[in-house]
C-alpha cells in the first residue's frame, strides 16, 4: 500500500500512517499495493499546511471488508457491513473475489473526515436548504448526510467504491435524509458538476489540482471547501485549523485570474 493514495500532511508520523494504511489497504481497494508507481511515489502534502493530519490515520476505521469483522464506522452516520447483511450472515465467508470492487483503482483510499471537521466545513461553506452540495469521493456519505440533516441541503455523493455507496445509502436512510441525498457510483473526474453550488473535497493535493480547471469553470460564486489540501496558487479566501486538520475555502471568481488559466 502506498502513501500516495492516502490523504495526509507532510508532518504526519510515518509509523502510525503506514500501520493504519495497511489495514485499510488489505482488502478495501482492488489492485491496492500492486507495486505500481502510485504505490511507490511519496506523499505530497501542501507545503504550507499548518497542521498535521495524524488524526486521519489514527481514527480511520478499517473498512468492513478489510477486517472481516463488522465494525461500525466512525461518526454518527456510519454503518457496518453487518448492518447490511441478513441476521447471522457470516461475511468472513465471502471470498475476496466475490466482494464488490470499484471499476478501477481509486485515486485515494478511504479515510473519513472526523465529524467535527465535517461540521466546520459545512459551517464555513454556510450551506443551506437552497444549496446543492457535491462531495467528490464521498466515502460513507457523512458530508452530504450531515448537510441534509442539519441544514436541509440537497446533496450528491460521488464515489468510486461500491461498498462505500452501499454504506452511504444505508446511512442516508437511517438519518432520514434519503429524499435529499443521492449517491452515485462514478469516477469523480467524469461527473457533471454544473448543478453544484457547494463542492467538498478530501482527496490529495495533486487530485485537487487536476480538478481545479473544472472547478474554476463552475458558476461564479460556487463554494469549494477542502479538508487538508489546497489548490496550489489559487489562494484560499478562508482557512481554519481544527485539531489535526485544516480546512480551506474558495469561491469561484467571476473572472479566472490569468495565473489560474
Ligand atoms: C479520503 S476519502 C474521503 C471520504 C469523504 N469525502 C470524507 O471526507 O469523509 C476519499 C474517497 O474518495 C474515493 N475515491 C477515490 N478515487 C475516486 C474517484 N476517482 N472517483 C470517485 N471516488 C473516488 C475513495 O474510495 C474514498 O472513499
Explain what you see.
The protein has 261 residues and is α/β, with parallel strands linked by helices. It folds into two domains: 3-98, no CATH class; 115-260, Rossmann fold, CATH 3.40.50. Helices cover 31% and strands 14% of the residues. The protein has a seven-stranded mixed beta sheet, with helices on one face. Helix 6 (115-125) packs across helix 7 (142-151). The protein is globular and about 55 Å long. Mean pLDDT is 75; it is low at 9-84. The structure holds S-adenosylmethionine.
What is the CATH domain class of the largest domain? Answer: Alpha Beta
Write the CATH homologous superfamily of the largest domain: Vaccinia Virus protein VP39
Category by helix and strand content: alpha/beta
Order of helices and strands: HHHHHHEHEHEEHEEE
Number of helices: 9
Furnish the topology, listing elements before pairings:
Blueprint: H1 14-28, H2 37-40, H3 54-59, H4 64-67, H5 81-84, H6 115-125, E1 132-136, H7 142-151, E2 154-159, H8 162-175, E3 181-185, E4 198-201, H9 205-216, E5 223-227, E6 238-242, E7 245-251
Parallel strand pairs: 1-2, 1-4, 2-3, 4-5
Antiparallel strand pairs: 5-7, 6-7
Helix pairs in contact: 6-7
This protein binds S-adenosylmethionine (SAM).
Amino acid at each position: 500500500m502506498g502513501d500516495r493514495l492516502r490523504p495526509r500532511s507532510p508532518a504526519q508520523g510515518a509509523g502510525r500512517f503506514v500501520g493504519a494504511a495497511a489495514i485499510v489497504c488489505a482488502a478495501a481497494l482492488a489492485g491496492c499495493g500492486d507495486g505500481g508507481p502510485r504505490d511507490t511515489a511519496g506523499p505530497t502534502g501542501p507545503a504550507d499546511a499548518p497542521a498535521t493530519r495524524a488524526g486521519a490515520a489514527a481514527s480511520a476505521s478499517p473498512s468492513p471488508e478489510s477486517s472481516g469483522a463488522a465494525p461500525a464506522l466512525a461518526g454518527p452516520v456510519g454503518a457496518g457491513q453487518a448492518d447490511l447483511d441478513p441476521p447471522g450472515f457470516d461475511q468472513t465467508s465471502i471470498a475476496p473475489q466475490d466482494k464488490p470492487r470499484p471499476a478501477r483503482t481509486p485515486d485515494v483510499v478511504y479515510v473519513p473526515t472526523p465529524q467535527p471537521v465535517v461540521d466546520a466545513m459545512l459551517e464555513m461553506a454556510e450551506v443551506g436548504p437552497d444549496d446543492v452540495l457535491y462531495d467528490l469521493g464521498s466515502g460513507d456519505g457523512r458530508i452530504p448526510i450531515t448537510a441534509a440533516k442539519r441544514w436541509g441541503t440537497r446533496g450528491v455523493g460521488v464515489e468510486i467504491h461500491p461498498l462505500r455507496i452501499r454504506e452511504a445509502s444505508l446511512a442516508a436512510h437511517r438519518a432520514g435524509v434519503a429524499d435529499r441525498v443521492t449517491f452515485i457510483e462514478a469516477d469523480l473526474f467524469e461527473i457533471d458538476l454544473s448543478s453544484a453550488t457547494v463542492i467538498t473535497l478530501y482527496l490529495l493535493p495533486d487530485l485537487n489540482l487536476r480538478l481545479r480547471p473544472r472547478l474554476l469553470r463552475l458558476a461564479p460564486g460556487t463554494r469549494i471547501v477542502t479538508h487538508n489540501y489546497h489548490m496550489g496558487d489559487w489562494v484560499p479566501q478562508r482557512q481554519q485549523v481544527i485539531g489535526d486538520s485544516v480546512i480551506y475555502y474558495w469561491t469561484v471568481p467571476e473572472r479566472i485570474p490569468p495565473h489560474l488559466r
